[in-house]
Amino acid sequence: MDKYNNFFKNYIFNLNIRNILILLFLISLFKNGIWYHPALWNMLEIAKNPFENVFGSNINKYYLYSSWLSPYLAYLLGIKSKFYFFIFHLFLSVLYLFFSINLIKKNIKKNNLKKSLIIFLIFPVSMTSFYWVGYDSLILLLMTFSLYNKKNYLVILICSIGIGLQHFEIGIVSILVVSIALILEKILYKDLKKLNISFIFIIVFIIGLFIGKISLYEIYSNEGFVGGRLDWATNALLHLFYNFYFNFYNIIWFALGAGWLIVFHYFFKQKKRWPFVISLLLLILLLPFVDDHSRVFSACSFMLIMVYILCNDEFLDTISIKHLSLFFLIWIFLPYSWVWQGDLRSTMFLYDLAYILDYIFCI
């Protein structure tokens, strides 16, 4: 193990930031792959005509109108083909990754930067918008913009309105768990050093979410939609509970995968641990009510993880090179894996490779 620790320190951790990011992304690409969200082509139909009901009487698809903003942006750009619609969302995913890295750089000490970047890639949320290229691409990008401009309340309002137009449910759950963590801080640890965001940030963010959601109702006020995400979940409760009960271990473990090791480290090494730990565990209560468990958990936990883990120097200081090398090794050998309807989904990298080979050689 000492040989490996020395190897990690000398040949991986000592790489410059650019090279370590390239290495991390190549590993992540192999572990994850790049593929489209199953609902992406239905969203393309909305992009072709974002102000009318393009699904007719098929109420099972009405919930997709709750993710209206990225199809509308594609509409403004004149995007009508599957290829360019996919590339547009993939571009948003790349922007999310780029600004997340810059958000981390902006908020932590230089000597903790490599630690935080490695840990970021260990958490599945770093790659969720590449595995499911689709509406999460814009949601996570807007969340990142909000945190990046945490004191510019106009930017926060605009971004949160966008999230309300793109996925109100993920937005409200995300900000609620951060709110719970901040409230617990005030109650349990009055002397705790102020973290990255304030209650004003929370209030402005929530106001923006509701403005976005209400605007969406106004946009489709004449269409008479009777179904949304909550309606869909209510009608599918038996199916959702069945999947959660019989696949509990897979769902819980792969909600964070190797990222649970970071959470355990936080629990044992951080004295004032409870605000983050309780808030994160509360998110598990959401999992029985969703079908795409890993994706939803990743997106809803993003802001909490960014504030308390990735941009928290106090916590990052507790992680030694030996700890980090062990986390890195386990991450390499453990799959990200995504759980959909209780079933494990493996890397899409081989599908990407097969698609490229078929396109080139027609095999």
Explain how this protein is built.
This protein has 363 residues and is mostly helical. Helix content is 69%, strand content 2%. It has 19 helices and two strands. The protein has a two-stranded antiparallel sheet. Strand 1 (338-340) and strand 2 form a beta hairpin.
What is the percent of helical residues? 55-70%
Strand order of the largest sheet: 1-2
H-E string: HHHHHHHHHHHHHHHHHHEEH
Average pLDDT level: 90
Biggest sheet features: 2 strands, antiparallel
Overall shape: it is globular
- Computed over alpha carbons, the radius of gyration is 20 Å
Distance between the termini: 44 Å
Brief rundown of the structure:
The protein is an all-alpha fold and 363 residues long. The protein is 69% helix and 2% strand. It has a two-stranded antiparallel sheet.
List the helices and strands and how they pair.
Blueprint: H1 2-13, H2 17-32, H3 40-48, H4 69-76, H5 82-107, H6 113-122, H7 128-131, H8 135-148, H9 153-188, H10 199-219, H11 229-235, H12 237-246, H13 248-256, H14 259-269, H15 274-282, H16 293-310, H17 313-316, H18 321-333, E1 338-340, E2 343-345, H19 349-361
Antiparallel strand pairs: 1-2
Helix pairs in contact: 1-18, 2-6, 3-4, 5-8, 6-18, 8-9, 9-10, 9-15, 9-16, 13-16
